[in-house]
Q: What sequence folds into this?
């Protein structure tokens, strides 16, 4: 027994095939309160999903999708949730051994009501890397992007109307779906695309986030899978997240935990009784599902480095770096307001950041970034019960939408997202899901 796509006798929703592709989106469906949707799988009765399968021997081929002819089994693989649930064996490789990767991206409407997709090509590169790391066959660029495009065309009636934070979240997924007991790569694989209309991830936040500095548990270590968007990266964060919320925190910020232990061991060996703590030398990573940035008094906007291989290379993280590089001059006034230094020069860096750097007011703002979150200010970073004392309150983090630098970058990002701002670095960030397949899938 293998875990195959629903059979041809399973109920499918009528698919818009390559010869009947709708050239414009349906309007948002009446009766759905798009303004107040939580971050969840909302209204699944309105969705369809795409499910393709292959084997180790066959791989992903032009039978699945051929850009030259715009034909393939992709167009015959659209199913209803209720009537065609995903069939999986109890011995499914990914259920037993965790070989699942996925992506998260968004489709939303710009001011004229047309839908756009934000940077799907960047998701492909991350998906491709993740597949290789998890012993899964990566789909071609054309299959990945056309799969997203086709799924959006099938579900255009649940793309929310234009509005702040409202989006149709898109999740491509690849997993080993063969049946096995042994620890080895699956012989069969499933490529899925599904969607959900959502609001913002931190929708209920009334001010800047209160973040717990996690000093006991590790999200990722060097040599592991911290830079792969695999399911295990989120599983390991769940228990710490629930514990942090019990203490009144919104989320955790994880450490490169070995750097904390090394500092503690060194202090113990040297009988160091100075006022500095081991935490001062500990290197910061990321939150449960978001990257972080810090705004320093010297004009640096800094995010923890990817070089250690322990941090996920976020698409929004990369977007913020590009925005600051391309529009640094326009950020100067906001940086002066944030730091109080009229001579400050705005720069953006990806480098190691230690806890000690955040002390004594050196960082005036902090914010997290993600597809779901966009940019959300952080008000406070602190340890919790039975941990080494540490607390930083950021000068401009208490009120939404955040400090002057955070607000300005968010404004720029949203202008780019709706086509009101562009630069050489941001060209090609927006793709029309109702454009031609060649246009949507182009390099």
A:
């Amino acid at each position: 027994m293998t875990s195959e796509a629903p059979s041809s006798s399973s109920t499918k929703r009528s698919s818009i095939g390559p010869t009947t592709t709708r050239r414009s989106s349906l309007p948002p469906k009446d009766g759905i309160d798009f303004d107040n949707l939580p971050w969840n799988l909302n209204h699944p009765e309105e969705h369809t999903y795409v499910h393709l399968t292959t084997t180790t021997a066959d791989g992903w081929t032009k039978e699945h999708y051929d850009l030259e002819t715009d034909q393939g089994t992709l167009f015959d693989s659209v199913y209803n949730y209720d009537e065609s649930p995903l069939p999986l064996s109890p011995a499914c490789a990914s259920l037993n051994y965790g070989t699942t990767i996925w992506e998260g991206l968004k489709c939303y409407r710009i001011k004229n009501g047309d839908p756009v997709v934000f940077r799907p090509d960047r998701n492909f590169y991350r998906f491709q890397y993740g597949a290789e790391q998890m012993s899964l066959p990566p789909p071609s660029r054309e299959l990945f992007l056309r799969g997203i495009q086709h799924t959006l065309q099938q579900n255009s009636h649940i793309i929310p109307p234009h509005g702040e934070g409202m989006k149709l979240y898109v999740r491509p997924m690849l997993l080993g779906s063969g049946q096995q007991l042994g620890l080895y790569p699956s012989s069969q694989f499933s490529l899925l695309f599904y969607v959900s209309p959502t609001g913002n991830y931190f929708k209920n936040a009334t001010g800047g986030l209160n973040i717990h500095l996690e000093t006991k548990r590790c999200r990722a270590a060097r040599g592991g899978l911290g830079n792969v968007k695999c399911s295990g990266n989120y599983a390991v964060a769940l228990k710490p997240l629930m514990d942090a919320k019990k203490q009144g925190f919104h989320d955790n910020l994880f450490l490169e935990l070995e750097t904390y232990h090394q500092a503690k061991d060194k202090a113990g060996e040297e009988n160091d009784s100075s006022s500095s703590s081991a935490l001062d030398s500990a290197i910061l990573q990321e939150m449960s599902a978001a990257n972080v940035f810090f705004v320093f008094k010297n004009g640096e906007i800094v995010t923890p480095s990817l070089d250690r291989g322990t941090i996920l290379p976020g698409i929004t993280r990369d977007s913020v770096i590009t925005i600051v590089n391309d529009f640094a001059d326009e950020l100067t006034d906001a940086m002066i307001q944030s730091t109080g230094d009229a001579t400050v020069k705005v720069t953006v860096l990806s480098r190691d950041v230690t806890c000690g750097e955040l002390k004594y007011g050196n960082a005036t703002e902090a914010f997290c970034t993600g597809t779901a979150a966009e940019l959300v200010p952080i008000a406070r970073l602190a340890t919790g019960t039975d941990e080494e004392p540490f607390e930083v309150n950021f000068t401009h983090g208490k009120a939404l939408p955040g400090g002057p630098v955070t607000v300005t970058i968010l404004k720029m990002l949203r202008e780019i997202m709706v086509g009101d701002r562009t630069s050489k670095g941001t060209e090609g960030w927006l793709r029309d899901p109702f454009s031609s397949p060649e246009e949507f899938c182009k390099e």
